[in-house]
Design the sequence.
């Protein structure tokens, strides 16, 4: 708070000088004032040579000056007798240390506000909700605190909203579902709590990243066009069956939550899905039916650290594009299917089955000399010669194996 006051006072002192230098400028004077206030709220010691803000030299006109001045600022095209307005602020990530001025709300023609990877602190100013033409708000990788401004719902033209990796908290405001133009929403790496609001009305949304927050409760309905869904590192619960309808999904990360029940075949068989990480949850079954040809594009399946039991799914070998498998730290029992051996030789590049209760001998390909696969089958109840790299780490004790099998 004290520093914010300091910002305002500082701007006030400079005002008369500024009005003089900009008297004949082509840029709207209010806009020049905002740019100056923005720079004045940054610790000058953090504005390094060759950074964008260093080029903001107010002896020039922001919209008129060409060359290397006012980097990161875009304006409307000059017209006779109409002052130019600032339309974009797209700062470099140069670790600028300071606050975002309340005056930002005066840049009413602003469509892009991009301040990522700096050291902005304090709240997102309430006045941001006056920027009704904003299509991109990207303030990721800063130290913003608090919640979204109260009237944030007025920014109905937003297409990209990225506030990831800040210190924001509180519930995710349900009004986000009114942002019908939104295609990218990243709220990851904050301290948001509560349920995930129903976003299925945000039908254009293609990227949703809510990872590393404190969100809990069951999954809501998601919009149909999602390509990337990242919900890892939360406290989400319930079944994941709603995701079986996401026909366009390519990347799915549900890891490190408290999801339970089955990992349904319907998720692995989504037509576009290439990456699935459901590790570190409480799933008990992995459903893999037989695939015929190119039904799935799945390349990576990580289901490590669950409570998966029963035999290893033989049908995994019918997933044509699969190269990377992690089923470690589960409760699988029985033998390693012979079919896995062929895949090891042909196409699989990474296989982790460590920390289960698998028994018996290895398929012959596992013991071949020119074994190039990454992975581990240690900490099972296998006959696993330590000359084989995959066996390094050893097996469980006889007692452990007896107790489980
Ligand atoms: C600019 O914004 C500040 C803070 O929101 C406000 O007090 C001031 O009246 C605005 N100036 C103009 C010219 O709109
Ligand atoms: C899956 O998620 C876990 C936990 O978030 C992470 O440690 C692991 O690296 C991920 N696996 C892959 C293949 O990305
Ligand atoms: C899956 O494999 C087939 C050939 O087996 C290949 O044509 C296709 O491009 C692969 N898909 C992906 C997403 O890599």
Sequence:
């Amino acid at each position: 708070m004290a520093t914010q006051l300091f910002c305002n006072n500082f701007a006030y002192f400079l005002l008369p000088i500024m009005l003089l230098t900009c008297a004949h400028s082509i840029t709207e004077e209010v806009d020049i004032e905002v740019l100056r206030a923005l720079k004045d709220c940054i610790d000058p010691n953090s504005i390094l040579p060759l950074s964008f803000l260093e080029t903001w030299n107010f002896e020039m006109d922001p919209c008129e000056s060409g060359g290397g001045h006012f980097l990161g600022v875009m304006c409307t095209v000059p017209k006779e007798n109409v002052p130019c307005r600032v339309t974009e602020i797209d700062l470099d990530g140069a670790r600028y240390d300071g606050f975002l001025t309340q005056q930002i709300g005066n840049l009413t023609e602003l469509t892009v506000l991009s301040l990522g990877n700096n050291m902005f602190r304090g709240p997102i100013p309430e006045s941001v909700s006056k920027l009704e033409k904003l299509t991109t708000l990207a303030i990721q990788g800063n130290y913003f605190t608090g919640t979204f401004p109260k009237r944030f719902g007025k920014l109905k033209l937003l297409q990209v909203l990225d506030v990831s990796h800040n210190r924001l908290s509180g519930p995710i405001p349900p009004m986000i579902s009114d942002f019908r133009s939104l295609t990218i929403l990243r709220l990851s790496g904050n301290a948001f709590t509560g349920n995930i609001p129903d976003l299925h009305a945000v039908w254009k949304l293609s990227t949703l990243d809510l990872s590393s927050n404190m969100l809990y409760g069951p999954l809501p309905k998601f919009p149909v066009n999602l390509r990337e869904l990242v919900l890892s590192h939360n406290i989400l619960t319930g079944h994941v069956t709603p995701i079986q309808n996401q026909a366009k999904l390519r990347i799915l990360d549900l890891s490190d939550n408290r999801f339970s029940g089955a990992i349904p075949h319907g998720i692995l068989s989504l037509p576009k899905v290439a990456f699935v990480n459901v590790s570190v949850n409480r799933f008990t079954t992995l459903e893999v039916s037989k695939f015929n040809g190119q039904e799935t594009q799945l390349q990576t399946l990580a289901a490590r650290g669950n409570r998966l039991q029963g035999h290893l799914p033989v049908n995994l070998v019918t997933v044509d594009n699969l190269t990377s498998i992690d089923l470690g730290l589960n409760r699988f029992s029985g033998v390693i299917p012979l079919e896995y051996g062929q895949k090891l030789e042909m196409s699989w590049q990474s296989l982790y089955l460590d920390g289960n209760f698998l028994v018996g001998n290895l398929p012959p390909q596992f013991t071949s000399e020119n074994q190039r696969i990454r992975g581990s089958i240690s900490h099972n109840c296998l006959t696993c010669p330590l000359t084989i790299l995959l066996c390094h780490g050893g097996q469980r004790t006889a007692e452990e194996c007896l107790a489980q099998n």
